[in-house]
């Protein structure tokens, strides 16, 4: 496909600064397997707002954010697998590049998808989506991928009748509910502060949904899609001895750990993003028609307003930039 002389990109010039739509020249390819691809859709993740607010101050700026990216390729539209590892270590060999010690993530460390074009370092990061909608498929990069891994890894504890609590039913959590219902036999209780999120969780198959202060434990498994001090403290109160708590949300909260600090023999883990095998499975699930997407398409220049809306809690589902 022919490349223009330059392309538009939404750039974060520095932390706590407004996003800027600017015209950029194509930089040199960073390796022999790298290529430039035209962006078809790029999701706006809540963690992008955290990035812009400087929550992870070691990230480089200026930066083009966007780790939920669908691009055009000669073989058709592809979703971009965003954690780009070394390709050599045991994690990369197992397709778990998100765990690689020298991972560079699209939209966090390397320039991502808030742009008309993106450079992808290797074709292994391009997964065909076939006839699926590019805007919905952008979620495969994070919001529908991350919950899949979390549920898959806990699946052997989620047999019929197990009481499972999911805290948070927003951007990621709405997919968590769907995987819990389609992949496990658990009884699914969802807690969310927002009534609209609770209603959507019920529509997606949750057995019960309530405000966080109305919860009654104990639960066998708890998924925390927020990850704040308050939600982790609630997980600690509601998990039964021997139960499993899976932290998914990146609010950077913490919980004290020790004999008198958590119920006896509870298991605490986080689930980090997803592997290339995980993303391939999410694509298969979507192609079977087993995933329900809620996306709102917006133009590239609306990225700043998208962040403002996320900060104000005014987004249901996913905002997806269409360059
Ligand atoms: Zn994300
Ligand atoms: Zn590696």
The name of the CATH superfamily of the largest domain reads Medium-chain alcohol dehydrogenases, catalytic domain
Q: What is the CATH first-level class name of the largest domain?
A: Alpha Beta
CATH fold topology of the largest domain: Quinone Oxidoreductase, Chain A, domain 1
Number of domains: 2
Largest sheet: 7 strands, mixed
Evaluate the radius of gyration: 19 Å
Question: Which residue ranges are poorly predicted, with pLDDT under 50 across at least 5 consecutive positions?
Answer: none
Query: In which range does the helix fraction lie?
Result: 10-25%
- Strand tally is 17
Q: What small ligands are held by the chains?
A: zinc ion
Number of H- or I-type helical stretches: 9
Q: Quick one: overall form?
A: globular
Strand content: 25-35%
Second CATH tier, the architecture of the largest domain: Alpha-Beta Complex
End-to-end separation in angstroms reads: 16 Å
Give the helices and strands as they follow along the chain: EEEHEEEHEEEHHEHEHEEHEEHEHE
Structural class: alpha/beta
| Average pLDDT over all residues | 97
């Amino acid at each position: 496909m022919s490349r223009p002389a330059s392309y538009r990109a939404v750039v974060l010039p520095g932390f706590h600064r407004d996003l800027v739509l600017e015209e950029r020249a194509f930089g040199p390819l960073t390796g022999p397997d790298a290529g430039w691809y035209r962006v078809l859709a790029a999701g706006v993740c809540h963690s992008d707002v955290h990035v812009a607010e400087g929550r992870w101050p070691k990230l480089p700026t200026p930066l083009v954010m966007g780790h939920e990216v669908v691009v055009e390729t000669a073989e058709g539209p592809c979703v971009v697998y965003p954690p780009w590892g070394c390709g050599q270590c045991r994690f990369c060999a197992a397709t778990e590049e998100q765990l690689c010690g020298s991972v560079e993530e699209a939209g966090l460390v390397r320039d991502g998808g808030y742009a008309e074009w993106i450079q992808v370092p290797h074709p292994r990061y391009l997964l065909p989506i076939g006839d699926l909608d590019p805007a919905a498929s952008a979620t495969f990069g994070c919001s529908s991928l991350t919950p899949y891994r979390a549920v898959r890894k806990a699946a052997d504890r989620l047999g019929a009748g197990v009481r499972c609590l999911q805290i948070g039913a927003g951007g990621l959590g709405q997919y968590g509910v769907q995987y819990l219902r389609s992949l496990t036999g658990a009884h699914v209780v969802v807690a969310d502060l927002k009534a609209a999120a609770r209603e959507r969780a019920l529509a997606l198959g949750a057995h019960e949904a309530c405000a966080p202060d109305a919860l009654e434990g104990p639960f066998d498994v708890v998924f925390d899609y927020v990850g704040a001090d308050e939600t982790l403290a609630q997980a600690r109160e509601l998990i039964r001895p021997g139960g499993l708590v899976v932290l998914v949300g990146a609010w950077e909260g913490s919980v004290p750990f020790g004999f008198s600090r958590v119920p006896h023999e509870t298991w605490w883990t986080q689930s980090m993003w997803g592997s290339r095998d995980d993303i391939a499975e999410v694509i298969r699930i979507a192609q079977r028609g087993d995933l329900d997407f809620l996306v709102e398409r917006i133009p590239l220049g609306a990225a700043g307003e998208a962040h403002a809306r996320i900060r104000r809690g005014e987004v249901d589902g996913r905002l997806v930039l269409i360059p």
